[in-house]
Design brief:
The chain is α/β, with parallel strands linked by helices. The chain has helices at residues 7-16, 33-45, 63-67, 73-83, 93-96, 115-118, 122-137, 149-161, 191-196, 198-204, 210-219; strands at residues 2-4, 22-27, 48-53, 87-89, 141-145, 167-171, 223-230, 233-240, 247-256, 259-260. It has 2 domains: 2-171, 3-Layer(aba) Sandwich (Rossmann fold); 184-253, Pantoate-beta-alanine ligase, C-terminal domain (Pantoate--beta-alanine Ligase, Chain: A,domain 2, 2-Layer Sandwich), CATH 3.30.1300.10. It has 11 helices and 10 strands. The structure holds pantoate.
Length: 262
Amino acid sequence: MKVFHSLALYQDWRRSTGTAQIGFVPTMGALHIGHESLLQRSVAVAELTVLSIYVNPTQFDNPDDLQKYPNLLEQDLVCAERAGVDAVLLPTYGEMYADGFRYAIEERELSKTLCGAHRDGHFTGVLTVVMKLLNIVQPRWAFFGEKDYQQFELIRGMVEAFFLPVEVVPCATVREASGLAFSSRNLNLDAAGKRLAPKLYALISSSASDAEVRRQLTAIGFVVDYIETRQQRRYAAARLGQGPNQVRLIDNVPVVSETPVA
Ligand code: PAF
């Protein structure tokens, strides 16, 4: 497995692979079973699989959240090797944002709702970094988890809008036995948070109304950002814990007519 700390070295390698069809899994590290499932999908279809690990500062609206984002590089490289990854890209801020973030990709509708309404500039940061990564990596497929469904929809829309030659592949959310969606942020939950967190999925996949789900989550200690059903999907974001130790969880489930289905 090749590990590239510089874009130029990655690009040399990419050129040497010629017409090989690449599968790409962009991540911010702290890899978990959900990421592993994306890597496995890629390894199954692509000739070569590329993983990027880059904690992208432009998508964090909250400095505490960025600062405490888990960094587990050694463990991540072991996981990547085990999954059959061919190349890992570990770019630096200096290279990724040589323009000082003067140039950005902005979507003006969907990105302003749900998570975008609560995290100023978040999706501009996500779309900008994903555009950069796709241009560098030059994959045939890029794999994204459905846990971040709004992110997946925005990236798919960007790829269509800018005619990028890549197929965006959605991959099912992977859950713990409790129903809690795997997320790197789960590592920051304390004991009480771990006990409560599965309630988010349990309630959004129940038949209770959005308002009722919000009420019940608030009653047990969540600070709810939103619970919203639209276009046959119920989306949720809610926080657990206090101050800088607060952990923000997101999830979503498909809904058939008015009844959420797990
Ligand atoms: O989903 C993530 O981990 C990030 O938003 C992504 C797509 C790697 C962009 O930084």
